[in-house]
Structure formats: C-alpha cells, structure tokens
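Name: Response regulator receiver protein
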Amino acid sequence: MSTQTTKILVFSHRPEVRETIITAVGRRPAPDLSRVDYIEASAISDVLYEVDNGSVDLLILDGEAQPTGGMGLSRQLKNEITNCPPIVVAVRRKDDRWLATWSQADAVLVHPLDPLAAAETVAEVLRGSAVPVVKG
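Structure predicted for Response regulator receiver protein:
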C-alpha cells in the first residue's frame, strides 16, 4: 500500500460548506486511490497560492462562494493556468449545472451532497476518467 497522499483543496468562504464537502468525499474516495489530505481555503488568494505552487491534485470549489463564486474561479483557473489540476464545482441547485459546464469544471456535485456520489465523482476525476459528470 502506498503512503503517498492526494492533496485536495476545498474552497468556500463558509467553513460549514468546506466541512460538508470534506465529510461527503471522505479520506479515501475509493479503495484503489491513495488517502486524501485536505487543504481548506476561504479566500481566492489562498487558492491561487496553492495552485501556483503546484501543491494540489484536485480542487473542489463552492459555486456559491462569496464574493467570487467557484464557477468563475474555475473558468479563470482553466483559462490561465497551464496544466491546471482537475476541478469539481459544488452547486446548490440542479438548474445551475449549465453554469458549472460554462466554468469548464471537470465534474459537478449538487447539494445536498450524497457521500457515495461525491466520493465516486471525485474518484472518477482523480483517475482521469471523468467526462463532465453531474451527481446529485
């Protein structure tokens, strides 16, 4: 068994949203993947710092974050960062899935988060086999 871990950055201005996402995905989204270490970010500057340093393997962004939401941040990162890590956007309403597609996210989660669907979605993205997926 590998001791390597996967680094996932979870961005939201609300700590309870970050906690919900971390709890839903869990410390090991699938048996064939390594354990997950989370980096929590409440400000865009923190996200940009971590991405610029290449310290994260995947980002989960709150689409409802304030003052800038995860969808706009996802689009910015995908357009400005060479070899941008995969991004999952969490949205509040199923009707917002089209915005998550606009954001160029690799996958979408819909609140309330189902732990099985959240872990499966993150595992698919980490394996690199994800096409834009909507779980919820």
